[in-house]
Input
Amino acid sequence: MAFSSDATWADRTAKAVLLIRILSVGFSFPKAFRNFFFPIPGSWAFREDRHPWPQVMAPFVGVVEIVCGALLLVGLITRLASIPL
Output
């Protein structure tokens, strides 16, 4: 038999995991949307960091951050989605 404290611990753990997911995605989404929808200003940041092909890399990084962030938020394939992030 499970104690009542086990149920509350499971509830707290689930809430903590959800909060961590929301916070981690919340920091990467604004930058990802900027890089995807406005690639020219995003490419300037990539150009300053001397990345190859900044006009291509800015939208690509935006797409990767949006897709992997959404997967992480929903809870699908979280281990694989967290690697590129």
Notes: Residues 4-37 form the longest helix (34 residues).
